[in-house]
Description:
This protein has 530 residues and is an alpha+beta fold. Helices cover 26% and strands 23% of the residues. The protein has 16 helices and 22 strands. The longest helix is centred in the last third of the chain and has 17 residues, at 475-491. The relative contact order is 0.18.
Amino acid sequence: MTELYPSTPTAPSRRTTLRAAGGGALLLGLGLTGCRSAVSESAEPAGGADARPKRGGTLTVAVNTDFTPSLLFAQSGQSLQQRLIYNTLTRYDDRLEPQPELATSWEYAQDGRSITLRLRAGVVFHDGRPFTADDVIFAVKNLQNPVRAAQLRATAAAVSGFEKRGDHELVLRLAHRVNNLFDLFEFMIITDRHSVEAAVTGKKLNGTGPFRLVEWRPGAGLSLQRHEKYWQPDRPHLDGVEIRVIPQADALVSSLRTGQSQLSYSVPGRNLPVIEGAADLTVSEYATGGGASYLGVNTSVAPLGDRTVRHALAWAVDRERILKQVLGGYGLASATPWPKSSPAYTEAGRTHYRHDPGKARELLRSAGHTRLDLPLLHVNLPSETALAEAIQYDLKQIGVHVTLQPTDPATAQKHLISQSMPALWAMGHGFAQVQPSTLAVSAYPFNEAKNTSRFRSAAYTRVVREAWTSPVTGAEANALRQRITDTLLDEAFVIDLVIRGSVQVASNKLHGATLNKFSYLNLDHAYLAG
């Protein structure tokens, strides 16, 4: 049956700490035979047991970046609306056990080379068409399509065959064993196969989720209305959702403080102290390690192909200062990508690189350099600019002078995907919060086959592939994870700085909003009180 890693408890901070879907143990996702998960449909309201759900009202969510249709199938800063419009096959609970969504149960074959999915009946798309096994087949093939920007393509590509057993039972056959299949199932949104090309242009987003798209106003936001035939009885409670794009930090904070917006995950760390003092707002942290801030290094740009130079950069950055000043203290300074909830996490890895500018200068000199002048791309949002400026300051202390290149989020993401970054870049990444093998086979900065840093290593590929296709418990699994971590630290083509959860700022009137492991917003049980 299901084997789980024990969770790594973390003490709550001085703020409220929320458990998002998947904040503890990690699912074995390989070799599960005859396992069936029970539905857990309830969500504890934020206001406690006395808070009673109320039907009606429109929730306004403030975001700092617009929806980018071309990135519909990739996880990015524009993914918040995914679970509002679309469902996924499964979702992780607090212990990272998969729970039913459009798949109600599943059974692995003994050899781990196939999985049988039983699908939920009575589900309809927003246009009224019934959901069937054909939609799951399309969803997998869609992610296999190289024209789609999709981080979990390698896992989708491991599905080599389909066997339909009626409209609501499907067997997925695998070319080889993989241990992150349920990461794919939570990541993969179920879109309408008949209108996918209209979806990637933003013209029509037809899903089975709790809300249907009424209008996308480029640069301004999305308007969503309740899906009256949603498969969960009497859900959602809300009549609608407005997603408003407010790029300026001060304006975004003002919209929350004045009640024009009731929810946001986009408040920069520097602005959180202002919010924390507001009587009608609550700041909460999803301590799942769903993301991380990092410094990316293009190893094809001289002299960054020299590992000693990359080590110098890793020792130069003051991670604790970034945590405090840029992220407002929310997160964990770390030289590795793993949150504490991951079985790949070790304290030795987290502290491997510390702030030591003297050592960094010595390494740079040993590589034959006393000064370097390099460009550094960053997203032109307040929190990302603050991160880039902090890195710029620290690197200057060791003789590395960087010129900042502010870039809009969609363009930065396209550079990331196409491996067209300049010498350095500062951004955020995900995929360390789920099965550890997913990071190295899926995340653009880390992908062993084709990463943004243009780093290639036969040894790295070998250990990643072995970790991806092997069981994930026991001494061998621990050793494989450690070898991946050691490679990331030693090669330093991605220099991790701070593990960060999603910081939620919400009106005290809002109850029941949650995030999944890929930061898709779930409002199935959310409501506005008062």
